[in-house]
Write a structure and sequence with these properties.
CATH class: Alpha Beta
Radius of gyration: 17 Å
Strand content: 5-15%
Number of strands: 8
Largest sheet: 8 strands, parallel, barrel
CATH topology: TIM Barrel
CATH architecture: Alpha-Beta Barrel
Shape: globular
Number of domains: 1
Strand order of the largest sheet: 1-2-3-4-5-6-7-8
Bound molecules: 1,3-dihydroxyacetonephosphate
Length: 248
Amino acid sequence: MRIPFIAGNWKMFKTKADASAFAEEFKALYQGTDVKAAVCAPFTDLQTLVDAFKGTGIGVGAQNVHFADEGAYTGEISVAMLEEMGVDYCIVGHSERRQYFAETDETVNLKLKKLLAGPIRPIMCVGESLEQRDSGELFDFVRSQLVGGLDGISAEDMRRVVIAYEPIWAIGTGRTASPEQAEEMCAFIRKVLIDLYDEDTADEVILQYGGSVKPANATEIMNMDEIDGALVGGASLKPADLMAIIDF
Ligand code: 13P
């Protein structure tokens, strides 16, 4: 039984003061909800959110991490640093990191392995560009991201990985994939997981859709059989909007 899981991705928005104000408002709205929720925030907001959400059931996620234990990697943050703060999730391989910061399937794989050695659950992002969709390469491409990113990850660890299908053309564009397009790819992802692992493992993995999810389209997306959650960018910046999506 997969429990619905909605995560916000604030990207590079919100100072500590903004995060604190958000948390106070969101905590009150979330009380008594049984849908799982998390907010993935900039590193500088994480401690504020961990403290504010203690005992509420709301998770906190980072948006990136380095794969080395420690070392001369100016500007980077390690898994141990996130663990010490009490972070629950970490996004890995978001298309913006692949596009602007040279993230590859290989670095995604190294990051997943490092996270899975500890308690933090990775949210691994995959998804095709518009050109890849139009040329019909979308399924081969997403399969290659899964095969590369999940290389060497055991079935037991795989159950702790959340996969977010985020078609690049639907991110921040207001152009949502239709529920049928999102469902088709999520069903494909689950088939790939059956190939790579087995039916029981594939059945337990939480699949999120991400790309212009809003209160107005959350219900039809969440009603799809293979879609268990959403990774929400812009609409996660306002507590009431994020809550309306959680209340789909
Ligand atoms: P938007 O919801 O703003 O389209 O962003 C989606 C996303 O990239 C979440 O990770």
